[in-house]
Amino acid sequence: QVQLVESGGGLVQAGGSLMLSCTASGSRYSANYMGWYRQAPGKQRDLVARIFDDGTTYYEDSVKGRFTISGDNAKNTVYLQMNSLKPEDTGVYYCNMLLASASSLPRNYWGQGTQVTVSS
Question: Least crowded by CB within 10 Å, which of 15, 20, 74, 78?
């Protein structure tokens, strides 16, 4: 059973930085893509950033120029460096990966979520 384990959330003042990381257990899997979603209180879970296995990246407009996603495919680990944080970045951040193995079709996996709170 694959598990995604996240770390790095916390409380930070506006303008500060945090780095999130997420690692998938199970070395026989490879990631088609890895990414991060954010769910603010009372809102839906939205995609913030994604990195594909060829290195292509996607960013939601509000985080462009402030957040950087990177990944280590060999370790099935994804990072999200968040700079110039704003109060509106507050929410629970969920790691998401599309993982496949030689014996299974690609399947979507989610981390447990890590809280990021940005104070004004």
Answer: 74
